[in-house]
C-alpha cells in the first residue's frame, strides 16, 4: 500500500514517520509546495518526494492531508475527484458554511474521508466508548475533561486561531459527545484572560470552562487553558452507574501535588503518541475495507457547531441551545 502525505510541516512529518514504521505501508510519498521541504524529510528507505499534487494523487492508494486549514476543502475535493481515500487533519474547513458544503459533497461521493481527531483513535478512548455504548458502564452521570497546554502558542498565531473553543476545546467538543453518544441539548461557557494580555488583544481568552448538558440528563464539564507550568495535561473521567473510569491519569500526568511531575508530558504529540500511531493503522484498515470510518466528516459539523455555541455563550453570559 502506498500512502501520500500532502504537507510536510509539524503534524505531516509526525504522521509520515508513523506511516514509514508500518509494515503494511510499502511506500510513503511526500508533497509540499515549499521547495526542498519534502526532499529534506526523505531520511529513510521507503519514503519518496514527489513534485506535485497530481503525481501524489496518481501514485497513492490514500492521501493524508496535513496542510494549513484554509487549504483543506480544495485538497479534499481534489482527492474526491481522483477517487483517492483521504484522511484530512482537523478541521476539514474553517467555518460552518464551508464545512456544510464540503460534508454534502463528501457524502455524495463514495470515497472514504476520515477526519484527524486523534482522540477517536486513542485505544483507551475507543475502549471507554465501547464500554459506554455497550451499556457495560450503565448510565453516564457525569464527564470531566481536562485539556491544558504546557505553553501558550506563538502570539502571532492567535488572531487566526479562531479562539480557544475552535482551536483547543474543539478536540473535547468532538470527543466527549462521541464518547457519551447522545446529543448535546445545552451549552454554557465562560472564559478569562490570566496567562497573557495578548489573548485579550486577539479578542480571545486563555482559560475556559464549558458545561454541556446531554439529552439523557448527563453533564460534562470541560476545563481548558493555554498554560500549565508542569506540562501538558489531558484527561477524561467518566462517572457512570456501574463504574468510574479515568483516562490520562498516569505517572506522566503533570500533577505536582501527587508527585506525578517527573517526566511529565511536554506536549500533545507525546501524550497522544498511541492515538496518532493507531490513526494511521485505522486509515490503512479503512482503505483495505476492513474497518469502519470512526471519524466521519459529518461529525465535524457537531463539534464546530458546539464551539460556536461556546463562543456565543461566553460573550453573552447565557446558556445556548446545543442544536443551533
Ligand atoms: N490533530 C492534531 O492534533 C493536530 C495538531 C496540530 C495541527 N493540526 C492540524 O494540522 C494542519 C497542519 O498544521 P501544522 O501545524 O502541521 O502546519 P505547518 O504549517 O507546520 O505545516 C503545513 C505544511 O503544509 C504545506 N502546504 C501548504 N499548502 C500546501 C498545499 N496546497 N499542498 C501541500 N502542502 C501544503 C506547508 O508548506 C507546510 O509545510 C492544520 O489544519 C492543523 O489544524 C492537527
Task: Describe what this molecule looks like in 3D.
This protein has 324 residues and is an alpha/beta fold. The chain has two domains: 2-115, Rossmann fold (3-Layer(aba) Sandwich); 119-272 and 296-321, Dihydrodipicolinate Reductase, domain 2 (2-Layer Sandwich), CATH 3.30.360. It is 37% helix and 22% strand. The protein is built from 13 helices and 13 strands. It has helices spanning 10-20, 37-40, 53-59, 72-82, 96-108, 123-133, 158-161, 164-167, 170-180, 197-201, 268-271, 273-287, 297-316, and strands at 2-6, 27-31, 47-49, 62-65, 86-88, 113-115, 140-148, 184-192, 207-214, 219-225, 233-240, 244-247, 320-321. A seven-stranded mixed sheet has the order 12-11-7-10-9-8-13. Strands 3-2-1-4-5-6 form a six-stranded parallel sheet, sandwiched between helices. Strand 2, helix 2 and strand 3 (47-49) form a beta-alpha-beta unit. Helix 4 packs parallel to helix 5 and helix 9 (170-180) packs across helix 13 (297-316). The radius of gyration is 20 Å and the shape is globular. Nicotinamide-adenine-dinucleotide (NAD) binds next to helix 1. Residues 6-12, 31-34, 37, 66-69, 71, 89-90, 116, 118, 268 line the site of nicotinamide-adenine-dinucleotide.
User: What is the CATH first-level class name of the largest domain?
Assistant: Alpha Beta
Q: So, the CATH homologous superfamily of the largest domain?
A: Dihydrodipicolinate Reductase, domain 2
Ranges with pLDDT <50 over ≥5 residues? none
Helicity range: 25-40%
How much is the radius of gyration in Å?
20 Å
What structural class do you assign from the helix and strand content?
alpha/beta
Small-molecule binders: nicotinamide-adenine-dinucleotide
Number of domains: 2
How far is the first residue's CA from the last residue's CA? 42 Å
Main β sheet profile: 7 strands, mixed
Kindly report the average pLDDT value. Answer: 96
Count of strand segments: 13
Strand order of the largest sheet: 12-11-7-10-9-8-13
Helix-strand topology string? EHEHEHEHEHEHEHHHEHEEEEHHHE
- The CATH topology name of the largest domain reads Dihydrodipicolinate Reductase, domain 2
- Principal-axes geometry comes out as globular
CATH level-two architecture of the largest domain: 2-Layer Sandwich
Count of helix runs? 13
Amino acid at each position: 500500500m502506498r500512502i501520500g502525505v500532502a504537507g510536510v510541516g509539524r503534524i505531516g512529518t509526525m504522521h509520515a514517520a508513523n506511516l514509514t514504521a508500518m509494515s503494511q505501508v510499502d511506500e510513503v510519498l511526500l508533497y509540499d509546495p515549499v521547495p526542498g521541504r519534502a526532499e529534506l524529510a526523505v531520511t529513510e528507505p521507503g519514503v519518496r518526494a514527489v513534485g506535485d499534487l497530481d503525481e501524489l494523487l496518481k501514485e497513492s492508494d490514500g492521501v493524508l492531508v496535513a496542510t494549513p486549514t484554509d487549504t483543506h476543502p480544495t485538497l479534499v475535493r481534489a482527492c474526491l475527484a481522483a477517487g483517492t481515500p483521504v484522511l484530512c487533519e482537523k478541521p476539514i474547513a474553517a467555518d460552518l458554511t464551508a464545512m456544510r458544503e464540503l460534508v454534502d459533497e463528501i457524502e455524495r461521493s463514495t470515497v472514504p474521508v476520515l477526519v484527524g481527531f486523534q482522540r477517536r483513535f486513542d485505544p483507551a478512548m475507543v475502549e471507554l466508548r465501547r464500554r459506554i455504548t455497550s451499556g457495560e458502564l450503565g448510565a453516564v452521570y457525569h464527564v470531566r475533561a481536562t485539556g491544558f497546554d504546557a505553553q501558550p502558542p506563538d502570539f502571532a498565531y492567535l488572531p487566526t486561531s479562531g479562539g480557544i473553543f475552535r482551536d483547543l476545546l474543539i478536540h473535547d467538543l468532538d470527543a466527549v459527545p462521541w464518547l457519551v453518544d447522545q446529543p448535546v441539548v445545552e451549552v454554557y461557557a465562560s472564559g478569562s484572560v490570566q496567562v497573557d494580555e495578548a489573548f485579550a488583544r486577539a479578542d480571545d481568552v486563555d482559560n475556559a470552562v464549558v458545561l454541556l448538558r446531554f439529552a439523557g440528563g448527563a453533564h460534562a464539564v470541560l476545563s481548558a487553558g493555554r498554560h500549565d507550568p508542569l506540562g501538558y495535561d489531558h484527561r477524561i473521567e467518566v462517572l457512570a452507574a456501574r463504574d468510574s473510569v479515568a483516562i490520562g491519569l498516569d505517572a506522566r500526568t503533570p500533577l505536582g501535588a501527587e508527585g506525578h511531575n517527573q517526566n511529565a508530558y511536554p506536549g500533545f504529540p507525546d501524550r497522544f503518541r498511541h492515538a496518532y500511531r493507531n490513526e494511521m493503522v485505522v486509515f490503512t484498515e479503512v482503505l483495505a475495507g476492513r474497518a469502519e470510518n470512526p471519524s466521519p466528516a459529518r461529525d465535524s459539523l457537531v463539534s464546530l457547531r458546539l464551539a460556536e455555541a461556546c463562543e456565543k455563550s461566553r460573550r453573552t453570559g447565557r446558556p445556548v441551545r446545543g442544536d443551533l
